[in-house]
Amino acid sequence: MSRSPKSRNSARRTRPGMGRRERRAAETRVRLFRSALKLIAEHGLANVTVEDITEAADVGKGTFFNYFASKDHVLGVMAEIQLSKGREAAAKAAEGRQSIQMVLRHLVRGLAEEPGRSPRLARALISSFLASDSVRNILKRHMHEGRKTIGGIIAMGQKRGEIDPRLNKEKVALQFLQTVLGTVLLWSLHEKPALATWMGNSFEHFWRSVAAPRKK
After folding, report:
1. pTM of the predicted protein model
2. Percent of the chain surpassing pLDDT 90
3. Mean pLDDT score, 36-40
4. Hey, how many other C-beta atoms are within 10 angstroms of the C-beta on 43?
5. CA dihedral defined by 104, 106, 107, 111, rounded to 10 degrees?
6. Cis peptide before 16 (omega within 30 of 0)
7. Are residues 51 and 86 in the same domain?
8. What total of structural domains would you count in the chain?
9. Any idea what the CATH number is for the domain that residue 30 is in?
10. Which residue intervals define the domain HTH tetR-type in the entry (predicted)?
């Protein structure tokens, strides 16, 4: 599955004002993540070793443990990337140039990019998050922050008359995340059609359930 320049940049982005050493460290960390993701998609998580990852990333094995406690922890970067997409969506919503419906639709597509590279990768990611307590805790922490971010977008939608103001924004944000995660899980089992199609259909159902009632 091809990835847009924007999605590639979001994964590689470094913070403004970072020094050269800090920037190189961030780039190495992302390179390890990308290499691990490619190997997991091809061979499955259980069949990938730290040595495989470092060789693919062209770094020493000792360097790997400067960034991650284990190969499972590499996947914590996935949660960081997804969270950054939520923040970008919130910034776009605040600009007011796009409807909240469009902002959330684009966010759904963005969140599907990484796991949508292959059903096998999606299954490997899900199993890794569920099997490791430490990775699961990282995911839960990022999801909590992501839920708050999405809740802010929902609140903007309610204020602008796009989303039903009677709904609890936190519950709607949770429903949004459940829609995304549930769709990824089901797609990983059925594999066809493409995840983007599944996500599009799921979003339409989600939006109909939260959209503000039409004025008569």
Report:
1. 0.80
2. 50
3. 87
4. 14
5. 140
6. no
7. no
8. 2
9. 1.10.10.60
10. 26-86
What is the distance between the alpha carbons of residues 51 and 56, in angstroms, rounded to a whole number? 8
More confident of the two residues 165 and 22 = 165
For residues 178 and 85, state if they share a domain.
yes
**pLDDT class for 43, splitting at 50, 70, 90?**
confident
Q: Is the pLDDT of residue 15 over 60?
A: no
- Please determine, for residue 160, whether its predicted confidence score (pLDDT) is greater than 70: yes
Q: Containing domain of residue 46, as a range?
A: 19-68
Output the DSSP codes for 121-166. HHHHHHHHHHH-HHHHHHHHHHHHHHHHHHHHHHHHHHHTTSB-TT
The Cα–Cα gap between 118 and 173 comes to 26
Shared-domain flag, residues 177 and 121 = yes
Q: Which of 68, 91, 109 is the last residue of a domain?
A: 68
Distance CA 58, CA 32 (A): 9
> Do residue 101 and residue 139 come from a single domain?
yes
> Pick the residue with more confidence: 131 or 173?
173
Measure the N-to-C terminal CA separation of the chain; round to a whole number of Å.
44
The burial of 58, by beta-carbon neighbours within 10 Å (0-12 exposed, 13-18 middle, 19 or more buried), is given as exposed
Supply the DSSP string of 184-202, one letter for each residue.
Answer: HHHHHHH--S-HHHHHHHH
In angstroms, the CA 210 to CA 185 distance is 23
